[in-house]
């Protein structure tokens, strides 16, 4: 069986389970369940702490895993990113009290508190900065107030938590992160099953980004209509019983669907419908 590590909690857990379910895999119903066998798909899921997943995959104990790019890089494990999953986006940034330091080059001799000590230490080294790095498991924003550090490096989504703590973000982002699929470099022992797994996830990503659009249009306007809905390869155009009219079917990006429907209607198309896509293979 293909052995896959999945986050058991945190911001990665539920979106990962939802994506795997959409890809046709069984998922646990009880959060206390640590191992689940999906015999129909020849897959065994192991529910682990997100921070530990890269270690298990990098050691070769598990074939692939779903984790965050930040956790992968911070672990130092011998594992590599092989697919982006498009959820759990975040940014690792420096922050401090206003009016103190303003850029990384000024951190020399200071202490930086973070939950991502590995990433931060490498980032400081890359910038030639000698600073102490203190590892904290959580509530990093309080480190300055409590005198543990002068600067923190923390995951930022909106920045509200840092502002509420009286801190301001400084410098460029350290790291842009999101959920990713990882594997051990050079491991091809389960290549066929890994590629099938990746195709399924890619199918979910496509299904989330597109809708199927159907509409009727006068045959003399079909070229203009098709220019609005070119599809991935080309749209399907079928003659209707009413001569002079055709039915068109095409995939369109979900974020553009309403605008395209308006433009098609103005062009003369009617019976314009959109349908969600549950799975895809391209």
Automatic annotation (TrEMBL):
Its annotated pathway reads: Amino-acid biosynthesis; L-histidine biosynthesis; L-histidine from 5-phospho-alpha-D-ribose 1-diphosphate: step 1/9
Gene3D superfamilies per the UniProt record, alphabetical? 3.30.70.120, Periplasmic binding protein-like II (3.40.190.10)
Residue intervals of the ATP phosphoribosyltransferase catalytic domain: 49-203
Q: Where is the Histidine biosynthesis HisG C-terminal domain?
A: 207-278
Q: Does the keyword Repeat apply?
A: no
State the reactions this protein catalyses: 1-(5-phospho-beta-D-ribosyl)-ATP + diphosphate = 5-phospho-alpha-D-ribose 1-diphosphate + ATP
Provide the E.C. number(s) assigned to this enzyme: 2.4.2.17
This chain's function reads: Catalyzes the condensation of ATP and 5-phosphoribose 1-diphosphate to form N'-(5'-phosphoribosyl)-ATP (PR-ATP). Has a crucial role in the pathway because the rate of histidine biosynthesis seems to be controlled primarily by regulation of HisG enzymatic activity.
The UniProt similarity line reads: Belongs to the ATP phosphoribosyltransferase family. Long subfamily.
Give the protein's recorded name. Answer: ATP phosphoribosyltransferase
Q: Which gene encodes it?
A: hisG
């Amino acid at each position: 069986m293909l052995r896959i590590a999945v986050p058991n909690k945190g911001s990665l857990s539920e979106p990962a389970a939802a994506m795997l379910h959409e890809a046709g895999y069984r998922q646990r119903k009880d959060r206390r369940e640590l191992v689940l066998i999906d015999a129909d798909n020849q897959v065994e899921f192991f529910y682990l702490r997100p921070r530990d997943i890269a270690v298990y995959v990098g050691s070769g104990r598990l074939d692939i895993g779903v984790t965050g790019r930040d956790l992968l890089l911070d672990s130092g494990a011998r594992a590599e990113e092989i697919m982006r999953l498009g959820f759990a986006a975040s940014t690792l940034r420096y922050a401090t009290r206003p009016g103190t330091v303003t850029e990384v080059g000024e951190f020399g001799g200071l202490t930086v508190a973070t939950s991502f000590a590995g990433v931060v230490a490498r980032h400081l080294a890359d910038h030639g900065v000698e600073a102490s790095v203190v590892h904290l498991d959580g509530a990093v924003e309080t480190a300055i107030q409590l005198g543990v550090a002068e600067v923190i490096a923390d995951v930022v989504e909106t920045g509200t938590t840092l502002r509420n703590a009286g801190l301001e973000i400084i410098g460029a982002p350290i790291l842009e992160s999101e959920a990713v699929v990882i594997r051990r470099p050079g491991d091809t022992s389960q290549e066929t099953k890994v590629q099938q797994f990746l195709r399924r996830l890619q199918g979910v990503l496509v299904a989330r980004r597109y809708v199927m659009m159907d509409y009727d249009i006068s045959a003399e306007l079909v070229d203009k209509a098709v220019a609005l809905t070119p599809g991935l390869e080309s749209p399907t155009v079928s003659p209707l019983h009413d001569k002079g009219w055709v039915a068109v079917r095409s995939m369109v990006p979900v974020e553009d669907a309403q605008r395209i429907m308006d433009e098609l209607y103005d062009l003369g198309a009617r019976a314009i419908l959109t349908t969600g896509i549950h799975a895809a293979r391209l």
